[in-house]
Design a protein that fits this description.
200 residues, 6-stranded antiparallel β-sheet, 40% helix
Amino acid sequence: MISGFIAPGVQLTRTPQGIELYSPPFRAPGGALSLALFGVACLIPGLFAAFAVAPLAASGAAGMIAIWLMSAFILPFVAFGVLFLALAAYRLTNSLTGIVTASNVHTTRRILGIAVRERFIGHADIAALETVAARRYRWLRDDDALYDLVVRTRTRTDAAQAKAGAAGSGITVAESLRGEDVVERIRSEIAVATGLGHPA
């Protein structure tokens, strides 16, 4: 293998067949931190409220009814807190590997090194390569814009969309790319690897 370059959020390695893009864990800690802070802000009041009403269980039927009524307000806070903490953990620990060759695009999503999802697109099904601004879960103090690169597939199920030349669904091959220069360089590398010129 011939190493390409390493930039914030992605490592590119050139191979005889094409390129490999690796988006490592902890590539966007600011976004994960914002999710975690929101989760904690929801979870702490919910847990304090749960501990406050727990003694009512010893009050008999009236206490149980009070707990049941209060749970409608307490449980959503706890549920949202756990959900956002889980999202933060996912954002921190997941990685994405994209292998781009002249014949196909293959991506693997991993969490803590364990593969959880694989996607595959053949060369004939590639419609376009799009740059998508990654506005989700951004840390407010991040000065640099983050971008994802998404390979769109041709849609064959909707005749109207096919006639209009619209692209179908797609797969992300690189994400949390910091800065337009990095995005354009990787776009060019993908265009060369797929043999499609420079997809729009």
